[in-house]
Design goal:
- The complex is a heterotrimer.
- Chain A is mainly α.
- Chain A folds into two domains: 41 residues; 225 residues, MetI-like (MetI-like fold, Orthogonal Bundle), CATH 1.10.3720.10.
- Chain A has 14 helices and two strands.
- The longest helix of chain A is centred in the first third of the chain and has 41 residues.
- Chain A starts with a helix and ends in a 13-residue tail after the last helix.
- Helices cover 40% and strands 15% of the residues of chain C.
- In chain C, the strands form four sheets. A five-stranded mixed β-sheet of chain C has the order 2-1-3-14-6. In chain C, strands 9-10-11-8-12 form a five-stranded mixed β-sheet.
- In chain C, a hairpin with a 2-residue loop joins β4 and β5.
- Classes of the chains: A mainly alpha, B mainly alpha, C alpha/beta.
- Chains A and B meet through α1, α3, α4, α5 and α6 of A and α1, α4, α5, α6 and α10 of B.
């Protein structure tokens, strides 16, 4: 008697559970899995979005390497991700440290640093193009006033990517918040022990704060990489691929091939290539997460 | 005792100084945004560039309202605003409700397959939007949803996105199990618990999710650009963007900047007012990976 | 506080759901052909709207038997991309505005209706419009677009800049070299060499002006049948000369992201078309226009935009009637009145409707057809594969012109071959 009622209970729970999961399952199927399959199919075809797709096998995956700017875009994407992510994490970490101090008015500062994140991408793109302008930019005005030569920013091949990274750093407010959350979650007892042990602020930093926030480092790193490798809007709004492809990223190239040249098959192949790379990198970070220390899960 | 206090004062002073310097650097571009929006077109193209206008041209703000034109007698600004509001209502309610609904399923009930689905959902965060962009367009086209707000609203009713689900799940995990048990004793089933206990308790994180959804939709450019074809269907984000292209309706950086300033005000105001929920809720969810 | 918030959330939810479902009912011009509505596609801007509204009103007045509702759809952003997107979903408007770059592409995919069969039916003689305009809409023996305007590249100049630099205004019998000399006088640089004011904006990323430039020097960048890149000696010299001028600041470096522009008042001259006049007039106080001066040859670069009929339209007859109405004297007069186009009808060449706009005293002769010229047409007309136009233009800009402009010294023949290959690859 008790067994069958337990089973019945479990069955009821399963049904209820799936009722609750229904929206996300439908959404997954319709808006994620279906498009994924479709784009996988397209990547093996030649498809111009007007006439029917024509199956060509793996030709797209081979020919995309000889497309102009493809290799450069791959390089740029990696460059951007590998420079801006660690740099951003590093800077936002120390910024968050400073902002976690218990000073009066610290909340105002937190808000100020988060401000650029709230500014719509449209507005900030137009703004930065204007401020970084070779002739009119206010930054060049400051530079010339200080007696230094003008800096080309987005106008020259060798400085364009640097300027893009600089622009990306402006948005460090969002990862700063995540750091703050991470700091919060480190239990006070650890700090007290450190004080008893007689450790100074630097010692505490290296032996308590950093080790205990490794989960946050991990999260920020993963999310950072995923986002950085997909960077598109600034490239589209500001540089259009930069002088001579200097700021062309994979996501931008995919958009151009798909919606400007209407070579959907090739664009889908490139998109899957990007997807595999991102997945690979994420898996690597996951597999090597032995350095992450977990406090132990809360109520499960 | 004195020297420790002194040390603390010096430390605080140095920190304040550094923070102020950094804050100035960070907020300088925004200052320039407002400043240049008040210049005349000539002032904005001067070399060397000016920091602030000679005389603040407040009329710039008035002029952009007329510059955009009308559709069947209604100003486009009003139409764009209306579309954006409708979109926000549909999206926020969808995101908030469905994220907590789904998160409840992931945390408060035990049933087989739950963790697999959760892992898949998290996995979708890795998928670059470029992969699904084009096929999604064809799917919505087959549904005859092009040039409507539907492609922008309904996907948000399916959980509101992996990040939001994740946030709410993390939050719900911090709620004690006793909630469930005391309600079960009273004879309530899962739906009752959801409605009467979990929903009210999750309010802080849901407010954060709602605010995030608001800002996300307000600023979103890519999706309206893809799905909204004709000018009267646009959202504000799209409208402000096209002001910058040389369609000839508006000329000059000051006007474009003025439009950008107005467009940026609602998210900024919302953020200032609800800052508590914004920042503290992210902190509260206690991301532990 | 919490209870109040959760009630608010619930209320929002209900409201949101209600609105979303309500939206289900009306889907404005969701982009599919409908039985009761005649859809017209135009480019998004206020003047086009006014023009089309007037055309529709005029058409309906002249054809009271047409009871269909006319709906105007305007696409903004990249118009050709939007058109192609609509075409791919079988959702093109019944009659739509087309760019010359799309004519061949649409024709090859059978998206537009060949119009030549209907010329007799609607009593329209092609002699009435300029040959060049007809040519742009022709694909093989068929006509897929009827051009609505005569459009050639002209030279706009900012009189204020000329006054400030003390240079004499352009004249109709200027030579190319005189133009360059004048441009040189307009250049203004900062102490560190940064160009603050350039002489001419030749729009180096626009194939219309680039082809004109090459043709004027007797050079070409494509082979005979437009299937591969072939930069001949004259074109190479032309490029080298161009590079020198750009580096001097005489010709604006379009790829340089400098922020300089004609409408901002810091470039003296501008290669544009008739439809630029309104924008220029809004931005500049003193300006006028002349023909583009001759280089080694007298070259004129032409384009035209017009209207096509969608092959999938359920209202073909109405579409054709409307199209030929637009091309009639009455329709063309309405077009002329907005001031943005030179009507395609020869008869309206001197019509005061457009010649006095956007301001009086304009040298409108510059917009008119000249005799004895070498004509350059849109680049897609020279390609074996018109649909590759976008990719070719990108390749030309990003892989050929832009690198050349920032290079120094003599360009080796290997480099030239590399440039040619880039063009060929884009045409594959």
């Amino acid at each position: 008697m008790s067994i069958s009622s337990k089973a019945k209970n479990q069955w009821r729970k399963t049904v209820t559970g799936y009722i609750f999961l229904l929206p996300v399952i439908v959404g997954l199927a319709l808006f994620t899995i279906l498009p994924l399959c479709k784009s996988l199919y397209y990547s093996f075809t030649e498809y111009d979005n007007i006439t029917s797709p024509v199956w060509i096998g793996v030709r797209n995956f081979i020919s995309m390497w000889s497309e102009p700017f493809f290799v450069k875009s791959v390089g740029n994407t990696f460059l951007y991700a590998f420079v801006s992510v660690p740099l951003g994490l590093f800077c936002s970490f120390f910024l968050a440290l400073a902002l976690s101090a218990n000073l009066k008015g610290i909340k105002v500062f937190r808000a100020l640093f988060y401000l650029p994140v709230i500014l719509p991408a449209v507005a900030s793109g137009v703004l930065i193009t204007d401020l970084f302008s070779h002739t009119y930019g206010i930054y060049n005005r400051i530079l010339t006033a200080l007696g230094m030569p003008r800096f080309p920013f987005f106008a020259a091949e060798n400085t364009a990517m640097f300027s893009l990274i600089l622009y990306g750093l402006w948005g460090m407010g969002s990862s700063m918040l995540i750091w703050l959350a991470g700091f919060r979650s480190v239990s006070e007892t650890y700090y007290e022990v450190a004080k008893i042990e007689g450790g100074g602020p630097f010692w505490t930093l290296f032996h308590v704060t950093i080790p205990m926030t490794t989960p946050t480092i991990f999260y920020n790193l993963v999310m950072g990489i995923i986002n950085a490798m997909q960077i598109f809007t600034p490239v589209y709004v500001i540089t259009s691929g930069g002088p001579n492809g200097a700021t062309s990223t994979l996501a931008y190239l995919i958009y151009i091939y798909g919606l400007s040249y209407w070579e959907m098959g090739l664009a889908s192949a490139m998109a899957w290539f990007l997807f595999v790379i991102i997945m690979g990198m994420t898996l690597i970070v996951f597999k090597t997460n032995k350095w992450v220390y977990y406090e132990g899960d809360s109520a499960r | 005792m004195n020297s420790v206090k002194k040390k603390k004062c010096v430390f605080a002073g140095v920190l304040y100084f550094l923070l102020i310097c950094c804050a100035v650097i960070f907020c300088f571009p925004i200052f320039m945004l407002v400043s240049r929006s008040l210049m005349t077109t000539n002032e904005a193209t001067l070399v060397p560039a000016r920091f602030w206008p000679e005389v603040a041209q407040w009329k710039n703000y008035a002029e952009i309202f007329e510059a955009v034109g009308e559709y069947n007698g209604t100003s486009y600004w009003w139409l764009w605003f209306k579309n954006t509001v409708l979109l926000e209502l549909g999206t926020i309610s969808g995101t908030v409700l469905s994220s907590v609904w789904v998160a409840y399923g992931f945390t408060r009930i035990r049933f087989p397959g739950r963790n697999i689905v959760f892992a898949i959902v998290l996995g979708t965060m890795m998928i670059p939007s470029t992969v699904t962009m084009i096929p999604l367009y064809t799917i919505f086209s087959d549904l005859h949803w092009l040039n409507t707000l539907h492609p922008l609203i309904w996907p948000m009713w399916c959980g509101g996105g992996a990040v939001n689900i994740f946030l709410v799940v993390q939050y719900l995990r911090t709620l004690p199990k006793e909630f469930n048990e005391s309600a079960e004793i009273d004879g309530a089933n899962d739906f009752g618990i959801f409605l009467r206990i979990i929903l009210p308790s999750a309010t802080p994180i849901l407010v954060a999710v709602g605010i995030g959804a608001f800002v996300g939709v307000w600023n979103d450019l890519m999706n309206p650009l893809m799905y909204l074809n004709t000018k009267e269907m646009w959202t504000l984000a799209l409208g402000v963007t096209t002001l910058n292209t040389s369609s000839g309706d508006i000329g000059g950086i000051p006007f474009v900047f003025a439009a950008c300033v107005i467009f940026s005000l609602p998210p900024l105001v919302l953020f200032t007012v609800a800052q508590k929920y914004f920042i503290e809720s992210v902190v509260m969810s206690g991301l532990k990976g | 506080m919490k209870k109040w918030m959760s009630r608010l959330l619930l209320a929002l939810a209900v409201l949101g759901l209600a609105f979303s479902l309500a939206g289900c009912g009306d889907s404005p011009g969701g982009g599919h052909t409908s039985k009761n509505v005649f859809r017209v596609g135009i480019e998004e801007n206020a003047d086009e709207h006014t023009m089309m509204d007037n055309l529709i009103a005029g058409f309906k007045a002249a054809n009271p038997d047409v009871s269909l509702e006319f709906k105007v759809e305007s696409y903004s952003g990249n118009y050709s991309d939007k058109l192609i997107a609509q075409a791919s979903n079988g959702a093109l408007p019944d009659l739509f505005f087309t760019l010359d770059s799309l004519v061949g592409y649409f024709a090859s995919k059978n998206i537009t209706v060949p119009l030549n069969e209907y010329l007799d039916t609607y009593d329209f003689s092609t002699d009435l419009i300029y040959d060049e305009v007809l040519e742009v809409g022709r694909v093989g023996d068929e006509i897929h677009m009827l051009g609505r305007e005569y459009s050639q590249v002209v030279l706009y100049y900012n009189q204020k800049v000329f006054d400030a630099a003390g240079v004499a205004y352009p004249t109709e019998d200027w030579t190319w070299d005189e133009m360059i000399e004048a441009a040189r006088g307009l250049v203004d640089t900062d102490t560190d060499g940064t160009v603050l004011r350039a002489g001419i904006d030749m729009r180096l990323n626009w194939p219309v002006t680039m082809l004109q430039y090459f043709e004027g020097h007797n050079g070409s960048i494509l082979n005979e049948n437009g299937s591969s890149g072939s930069i001949d000696a004259a074109a190479r010299d032309a490029y080298t000369e161009l590079r020198g001028l750009v580096q001097e600041g005489v010709i604006l470096n379009t790829f340089g992201n400098t922020g300089l522009s004609f409408t901002s008042g810091n470039v003296g001259m501008y290669f544009g078309v008739r439809s630029d006049a309104t924008t220029i007039n809004r931005s500049l106080e003193k300006w006028n226009v002349v023909h583009v001066p001759d280089m080694d040859r007298h070259v004129v670069s032409l384009g035209a935009s017009g209207y096509s009929v969608s092959a999938l339209s359920p209202h073909k007859e109405i579409a054709l009637r409307f199209l030929f109405y637009i091309m009639s004297t009455e329709g063309q007069t309405i077009l002329a009145k907005t001031g943005n186009v030179v009507p395609a009808l020869r008869a309206l060449a001197a019509s005061p409707d457009w010649t006095s706009q956007p301001k009086e005293g304009l040298n409108y002769q510059a917009f008119l057809q000249e005799t004895d010229v070498v004509k350059v047409y849109p680049i897609s007309t020279y390609l074996a594969e018109p649909s590759a136009a976008n990719k070719l233009i990108d390749a030309l800009n990003k892989q050929v012109t832009s690198p050349i402009l920032s290079s120094v010294g003599t360009i080796s023949s290997e480099t030239w071959t590399m440039y040619e290959n880039s063009l060929t690859n884009a045409l594959r």
